[in-house]
Amino acid sequence: MKKEDCFYLGKIVSKYSFKGEVLIKLDTDEPEAYENMESVFVALGNQLVPFFITQCRLHKSNLLRVRFEDVNTETDADRIMGSELFLPLSLLPKLEGDRFYYHEIIGFAVIDKVHGPIGQVTAVNDTTSQALLEVEKDGKQLLIPITDEILVKLDREQKNLQVHCPEGLVDLYLE
C-alpha cells in the first residue's frame, strides 16, 4: 500500500500500559467512527506496514487506546512510538454537499465572487491554526482561509470551489 492511496488517521502519541498498549491521537471530527477497526497501516521508515488490532476503544476525547497484535511490551511500543497511522482512501465515508476532505479538492478551480477565476487548488495547509487553501495562478500563490464565510459553494461535478474572499485579499497576491 502506498501513502497516496491512503488517508492520514493519526499518530501514536504515548504508551498506555506496560503491556504494549498505545494511545493514538486521531485527526478526525468523528473519533467514534474508528472504534471498531481491525487493522491500520503504520508508517515505519518509508513503508506502510499493516498492524492488526486486538483491542481498540476511545480514551477521553479524540484519543484511541489500542492494543496491536505482536506489540506486547513497553519495548515493542517504543519501536512504533511517534509513528503516523493511515487507512485506505476507500474507507473514508463519503461527504455530501459543501463538506469535503482536503485531498479531494486538489486540482479544483477557485472562482471568486468578485474576481472570477483566481487559480487552482494545489494544496491545503492545515499546519497553521487556520487551514488555508494554496491556490496558484500564473506562477503566483494565493493563500485563502478555509472558513464558512469565504467558501460559498463546492461543485464536485465541475471541480470548482466558489469563494467570496474579503476585500483586498485577492488583489494583495495578484497585483
UniProtKB/TrEMBL annotation:
Q: Which residues form the Ribosome maturation factor RimM PRC barrel domain?
A: 103-169
Q: Where are the transmembrane segments?
A: none
What coarse category fits the chief subcellular location reported for this protein? cytoplasm
What InterPro entries does the entry give?
PRC_barrel-like_sf, PRC_RimM, RimM, RimM_N, RimM_N_sf, Transl_B-barrel_sf
Coiled-coil spans in chain? none
Q: Where in the cell is it found?
A: Cytoplasm
Domain spans labelled RimM N-terminal = 9-88
Keyword annotations of the record: Chaperone, Cytoplasm, Ribosome biogenesis, rRNA processing
Biological processes per GO annotation: ribosomal small subunit biogenesis; rRNA processing
Q: Name a GO CC annotation attached to this entry.
A: cytoplasm
Gene Ontology molecular function terms on file: ribosome binding
Q: Which domain of life is it from?
A: Bacteria
Quaternary structure, from the entry: Binds ribosomal protein uS19.
Name the job this protein performs. Answer: An accessory protein needed during the final step in the assembly of 30S ribosomal subunit, possibly for assembly of the head region. Essential for efficient processing of 16S rRNA. May be needed both before and after RbfA during the maturation of 16S rRNA. It has affinity for free ribosomal 30S subunits but not for 70S ribosomes.
As for family, the record states: Belongs to the RimM family.
The domain-related comment in the record is:
The PRC barrel domain binds ribosomal protein uS19.
Q: Which PANTHER family match?
A: RIBOSOME MATURATION FACTOR RIMM
> This protein is called what?
Ribosome maturation factor RimM
> What is the taxonomic lineage of the source species?
Bacteria, Pseudomonadati, Bacteroidota, Flavobacteriia, Flavobacteriales
